[in-house]
Specification:
By secondary structure, this protein is an alpha/beta fold. It has helices at residues 5-12, 24-27, 41-44, 47-50, 53-58, 60-75, 81-90, 106-109, 167-178, 198-204, 231-247; strands at residues 16-21, 95-100, 116-117, 120-127, 154-158, 182-186, 208-212, 225-227. It has a domain at 1-30 and 79-119 and 165-248: Rossmann fold (3-Layer(aba) Sandwich). The chain is built from 11 helices and 8 strands. Helix 1 (5-12) packs across helix 11, helix 7 packs parallel to helix 11 and helix 9 packs parallel to helix 10 (198-204). The protein starts with a helix and ends with a helix. The structure holds 2'-O-acetyl adenosine-5-diphosphoribose. 2'-O-acetyl adenosine-5-diphosphoribose binds next to helix 2 and helix 11.
């Protein structure tokens, strides 16, 4: 794909860049997205049964085991060229913020730092009562295991439907989106709020907004540039073209 020259010229002059990523960025690592018709997780499982506080109250074992399955999938996955390109992109600007809705930790494994995780991280576990992060517990055969401090059930440290975003991360994400001169929305269907509002916030604040997604989304008509391709191909090309543009 040829990256538009105007995009490159504007990006080359940017001082502050913010990126929002969604499940599509990890698709090429073999981690299923949520909404893609045939492969997405919600095509096979119902969010109401698995990713809500009610689901956990009703059937904690089912929810815990589903997350154990996803944890294994994520542990076996490797960062792909999109994750690596974003880690490199961060080194090319004085200010760079990476906001992700993904819980898989693949950005960090690719070398990105200070990642703003809006939906938590599947590799962490917390007490379902007190919310404290728990890193070790006794295996008593109980599924889910129990909190060593208070005996409540343990759960993954992710945001479920119906739960609020972590306030500090949401604040950081909002500031990063409204104080940048370039904003990328990559691999997200932009239908789950409040994360889905961030590209529009960036637009309203005067940033140039670029979407990278093989499919159109509700945000596509508003983007200054919509690059219709997979992130693992488009992002490495973009980084290469940007470096060439700066050398020229
Ligand atoms: P979705 O599954 O809703 O959307 C994935 C997007 O990635 C779609 O628009 C695809 O077209 C696009 N896509 C697929 N493959 C791609 C690729 N190789 N490169 C670039 N884009 C690609 O995932 P999210 O938008 O991340 O929340 O979903 C947002 C939230 O909804 C998730 O964090 C999760 C989910 O329910 C919770 O669990 C709270």
């Amino acid at each position: 794909m040829t990256i538009p020259v105007e995009l490159l010229q504007r990006l080359a002059g940017a001082k502050s860049v913010t990126v929002l990523t969604g499940a599509g960025v990890s698709a090429e690592s073999g981690v299923p997205t949520f909404r893609d018709a045939l492969t997405g997780l919600w095509a096979k499982f119902s969010p109401e049964e698995l990713a809500t506080p009610d689901a956990f109250r009703r059937n904690p074992r089912l929810v815990w085991e589903w997350y154990q399955w996803r944890r294994k999938l994520v542990a076996g996955a490797e960062p792909n060229p999109a994750h690596l390109a974003l880690a490199e992109l961060a080194t090319l600007f004085p200010r760079f913020h990476l906001i992700t809705q993904n819980v898989d930790g693949l950005h960090q494994r690719a070398g990105s730092w200070n990642v703003i995780e809006l939906h938590g991280n599947i590799t962490r576990t917390k007490c379902s009562d007190e919310g404290t992060i728990v890193s070790a517990w006794k295996d008593t055969g109980n599924v889910p295991p129990k909190c060593p401090a208070c005996g409540a059930l343990l759960r993954p440290d992710v945001v479920w439907f119906g739960e609020p975003m972590p306030a500090p991360e949401m604040r950081q994400a909002m500031t990063a989106s409204t104080h940048c001169d370039f904003f990328f929305s990559i691999g997200t269907s932009t239908v789950v709020y409040p994360a889905a509002a961030l590209p529009s916030e960036a637009l309203r604040s005067g940033a140039t907004v670029v979407e990278i997604n093989p499919q159109p989304t509700p945000f596509t008509p508003q983007a200054h540039f919509a690059l219709a391709g997979v992130a693992g191909v488009v992002l490495p090309e973009l980084v290469k073209a940007l470096k060439a543009c700066r050398r020229a």
